[in-house]
Amino acid sequence: MKQTLNLNNNIEINGIEINEEIFQQEMVDWNVADLKNEIDNIIDWIGWSSSENDKYLMKEDLKILMSKGDIDLNQTFFSRVSTNEFIFHDDCGFDEICEKILKINEEFEDA
Questions:
Q1: Cβ count near 110 (within 10 Å)
Q2: What is the pLDDT of residues 30-65, one digit of tens each?
Q3: Could you tell me where the beta strands, DSSP code E, fall in the chain?
Q4: Strand partners of residue 32
Q5: What are the Cα distances from residue 49, in Å, to 22, 32, 39?
Q6: How many CB atoms lie within 10 A of CB 63?
Q7: Which DSSP symbol is given to 15?
Q8: Contact indicator for 30, 79 with CB cutoff of 8 Å
Q9: 76 close to 82: Cβ distance less than 8 angstroms
Q10: Residue partners of 26: CB distance under 8 A and separation at least 6
Q11: Is pTM, for the whole model, over 0.90?
């Protein structure tokens, strides 16, 4: 089954609210991001950065994200904490990440 990810006032996967502490405590190596806000943030960071290498990497990220923005700027997606990797609804691995987060959320709520 194709998973759904929503980011409104809270994070939901398949209509199940996910405890934000899972992300805050880095129990998974992913954050949930909003495409429009992430693009805006990277543009700001490029302006603030004094490192040419960092600017280059941020511009590469921006290119990836803006190509997805051609489809829908209101998308939510997974952004890896430790690297610059982005997983969108139509990408390989999206469903597995959702399932992992749902499992951790269930274990977290039961604890």
A1: 6
A2: 999 999 999 999 999 999 999 999 999 999 999 999
A3: 5-7, 11-13, 16-18, 30-34, 76-80, 86-87
A4: 78
A5: 30, 24, 15
A6: 9
A7: T
A8: yes
A9: no
A10: 81
A11: no
